[in-house]
Description:
Two copies of one chain form a homodimer.
Chain A: E1 2-5, E2 15-20, E3 33-48, H1 56-64, E4 69-79, H2 87-102, E5 109-116, H3 124-128, H4 130-136, H5 142-148, E6 157-165, E7 168-177, E8 190-195, H6 201-214, E9 219-220, E10 230-235, H7 251-271, E11 279-287, H8 290-302, H9 304-311, H10 317-325, E12 337-342, E13 345-351, E14 354-355, H11 360-367, E15 371-377, E16 383-390, H12 394-401
Parallel strand pairs in A: 4-5, 8-10, 9-16, 11-15
Antiparallel strand pairs in A: 1-6, 2-3, 3-4, 3-10, 6-7, 7-8, 11-16, 12-13, 12-15, 13-14
Helix pairs in contact in A: 1-2, 2-4, 6-7, 8-10
Amino acid sequence: xFSYIDGGVTAPKGFTAAGVHCGIxxxxxKLDLALIKGEVLCxxxxxxxxxxxxxxxxxxxxENLQNGHAQAVICNSGNANTCxxxxxxKARQMCEIAARAAGVKPSDxxxxxTGVIGQPLPIEPIANAEQALGKALSLSGGSDAxxxxxxxxxxxxxxxxxxxxxxxxxxxxxxxxxxxxIHPNMATMLCFLTCDAAVEPAALDKALHxxxxxxxxxxxxxxxxxxxxxxxxxxxxLAGNEAIAEESPSFAPFVEALTDLCRTLSRDVAKDGEGxxxxxxxxxxxxxxxxxxxxxxxxxxxxxxxxxxxxxxxxNWGRVLCAIGYAGVxxxxxQVDVAFSSxxxxxxxxxxxxxxxxxxxxxxxxxxxxxxxVSITLRDGTSAATAYGCDLTxxxxxxxxxxxx
Amino acid sequence: xFSYIDGGVTAPKGFTAAGVHCGIxxxxxKLDLALIKGEVLCxxxxxxxxxxxxxxxxxxxxENLQNGHAQAVICNSGNANTCxxxxxxKARQMCEIAARAAGVKPSDxxxxxTGVIGQPLPIEPIANAEQALGKALSLSGGSDAxxxxxxxxxxxxxxxxxxxxxxxxxxxxxxxxxxxxIHPNMATMLCFLTCDAAVEPAALDKALHxxxxxxxxxxxxxxxxxxxxxxxxxxxxLAGNEAIAEESPSFAPFVEALTDLCRTLSRDVAKDGEGxxxxxxxxxxxxxxxxxxxxxxxxxxxxxxxxxxxxxxxxNWGRVLCAIGYAGVxxxxxQVDVAFSSxxxxxxxxxxxxxxxxxxxxxxxxxxxxxxxVSITLRDGTSAATAYGCDLTxxxxxxxxxxxx
Lengths: 405, 405
């Protein structure tokens, strides 16, 4: 139904992007300011953190998106612009700078910041970069934009796909950053999506919420829900399809493609979690309902003990059962099966809530791979859920023991 | 109103204790089986884990305590006797062994196990130790009992205090173990309390719940609620006081003394968390109500990012605010103050939800101590709560990356 292509956020028709080093970060080789521009005014939607502490950019973006339209995204790394008295003022200044650089209206700008909380954002480096940013906007700038929003991320997260909607070839692309303070509740740290399909604002909002519920909201790196989480999407409509409404036959395939793109970005966020050496995927089947399947999957993927065991390739399934038991939803614990799998094979370690004999040697082989799936079979119903996380490592502690310096 | 004394669980009148090496653990120098005996049948109460997965010993103890009385405690380390098909049978066998060793009825035994989940408990080593265990019971055996219940604990947790209740001098003592999978919901991993005051069963049950709510239930080492958590108390009544009922003038001072003893043990559990180098205390004042003050304190003490920052002596108060923001209770975030303190001094780092200038040098000095208090002032009401935790360190990862081998 869709295929992945190159190009990230500039793959869809009508988008250019840029990433520059403006100086918020001291390391001159680290890009720290991203801009994405739509050729035309776009239908837009976003989901935001549910943390009570909200970054100033979140508040300004919410305001700007009230009319369901936007035309540009600006985002800096190195400073979260959160818990500062002058935060909203600075976020509005960023919108003005982006507006001048991209030739759009300040009220049509989505603004975001990521980095340390509680240190005043220096606006001068951003203001000084206005011209360079505008000049750098290009069809090949998606990769620089992806790099500019990274903090402790070790790899660029940029994807695009092509699908057919209403008989027209449409494209969507996205960039994301993750790494630490990742336990999204509405969205992951930051993800910016573009699309050239025409989609009505209400349908776009619903589609984004549906996609995020199964993807970014199922990721946990460290259980900490950031103050600046945001996933946004801009749809240029330049693909020429008939605008998608909720009742359109194209709505379901649009959600499907969008969810797949978000899942691909989410998996990267989990895999590139701070200090991580492994992507952990927790697949739950047989749940009583969607909410309980999700709760079980997130409880296991969030358990520090499970994460540390996976780091050590230790098939300690007791920790999986323990985390199911405190997930806060009713589960028939005596009917739970647990299996581990990876490229190296699959091994069942627990049946009906009790241990079974298994080959520790095979288990160690399975768990030494860098992508592990723990499959949990419940016997409570027919709902399924998948959560994404990573192992807990020495490097997570190292990175976070001294983040500010 | 009370003073700490030596002796642990054998300090109150009418209790002997023992700890031996029976062989569940391979290291011969590690005691792994504890017994506490009451000279007379005691009033007894316990609180248990709220994990849906409950260790077999929990189920058997609940049964035995239905009549509000017990006379002995048996506990092994090295195996949790949880998620095994024959778990309850083995737990009952442990009660019979304890009963013969102590000369009491099997139905008057509190049984507990701690260690790895999902491996069948070998009962032979325990059965073979029956005589040795009985012989070892003595007034000076409290310390051995405390040692025998330790798993990854690095220090013995054993305390006793003396207070006056109803005009009589009464004593209470307790031993506890903690270290990992510590995020109790009703009780910490394991704590056994003794007391020589006479207390009516209903009053004892209520007093224990009150004491635990403010102490063990406010501890988090790693966010994982164990399957085997239990806090139990035996009251011999040999102090000669008039039996304490809920309406008695002695009830409040009894609860106060019991809470203090539980707090002392809880702090040790937090301080000796797996891999910990620091005790972290989170004091919340000005909460809208008890529940929200507790939720805020537990959210901060449980944040991996806050814990890692404390390990690195990094005054990253943004992480404190972030954790307040996702605590799940309404808080006026713009009116929150945050300060750090230790033996080296006190430093306010955030006022009214925003950063203030502070000396990084003083902050580093304050945070380099091994006991740190983070004080959070809310402006929502008059409720207070204190939570106890520890820093997140390389050693936590090391210990849990390869726990079973």
